């Protein structure tokens, strides 16, 4: 058997193993439905519960990376705190070692009798047959998912057999034995474990290969221990990759996975090899088997978590030191800290605190709209991701403020206080919707950038005029709300009406350009999407201003107020409207073009 054939056979075994593990894990997750996510989220109020839960979930889905990536998602969305995630990730480190014990089944073999019935080939064949029957001939989705689990298990077993068969001839290869002897050097073994696992993106696969190599009879405890230590560190690679694009808490959560294994590797390297230098453990040259590899992996991971468990708070502090909060992040947290539950018994104080927090939300919504619109001038992935990140923050504002305001409404308040709370409840959803439209606009910008679409000069000029009008509308609404300025609020509705007229006019003009071939259809969809979002932004600004003005009226009915304002259109309203009409004249481009032609 040539070296090339051995490597090819080994790689095919790894491929089958990874596919089988993925198929089995996906099937298990489908059988469990969304219960895994729900359980992970709810049952993590103590570190010990988190460790037990992380162990159980990872043992089920056969992937510590999958569990940790799920947790990174929870923390990134704000559903879970970093401190809650630490216990689950520690448990995931233990749970992933269960795969090694499952793989031991692939080494059961026999030539006759009971041993033959319990052989890997027989078990794999029976499980595969049942799995394919469930998958192909049973209509219920639950049975189909079970079929996936069984087929995944069978493919995994076949992959392990293929790997074992590929490395079997190596036990008589002098060069191979020399390489493994080199791994008795702890540093070389740790580095090998890190590299293997980083490439394979799976700790279970690395352990499986180590178990397969142990069948050659050349793997000793001295070589297996450092490789096992390195495997845990290498397994952090897919988790760290999953944190790209997440917020700072998501990145901190991914780092916890790396630090758990890194600290474990450093601690046991120092302790074990220091003691060994004095005592000289007699089992260092003991030959390892698949069962002993599985046991070593489990004991090492469990011992690491036992050592680290008392230091959860320190681990949290370290990740916060590595990924520091910016002044902006601290400002965000300061807004949430304003919503102190002890103030609920004092309505005036609670209302003042809510207003300050909403001011923060309003300013962030405005900034996100401006950030999204700037993507049309100079597009950058970093700025696009920032828009998505801030939208998550704005959603968090709505959740916290909405909850706080509803709690406030259950306390006794006078008429003026009740109106203030009602105003805030009306406007908080409008500020949140401004954030949604910022995301929509950023997605239009991303599409234009990806498809290399550019608007005609005339269309771009019209959009610039409209965007400037919308920017002023947003600034008026936000500044009026923050300062409680009713006179400024009264300017919003006339500008909103003009923006609505401009949007209708721009749509008609763009249709005309499409007919004459000045613009293409692919530009038309993006143009209309942008107009729709800009018009809706102006509408939400109007809602905010109207809620402020109506607060002063006896009856809080925004629809009736808008109807009366638009029908009566007093002198002040018309003066504002005329001013905006002159300021945002979309005919400027045509006038400029006509002059140029003359």
UniProtKB/TrEMBL annotation:
Biological-process GO terms, alphabetical: sodium-dependent phosphate transport
Compartment list: Cell membrane
SUPFAM superfamilies, per the entry: PhoU-like
Key words of the record: Cell membrane, Membrane, Transmembrane, Transmembrane helix
Membrane topology: Multi-pass membrane protein
Lineage top rank: taxon: Bacteria
One cellular component (GO) term of this entry: plasma membrane
Boundaries of every PhoU domain copy: 360-444, 468-545
Spans traversing the lipid bilayer: 51-75, 87-108, 114-137, 149-168, 188-210, 222-244, 256-279, 291-312
Chief location bin: membrane
Any one GO molecular-function label of the UniProt entry: sodium:phosphate symporter activity
NCBIfam families the record matches: Na_Pi_symport
Protein name as catalogued: Na/Pi cotransporter family protein
Species of origin: Roseburia inulinivorans
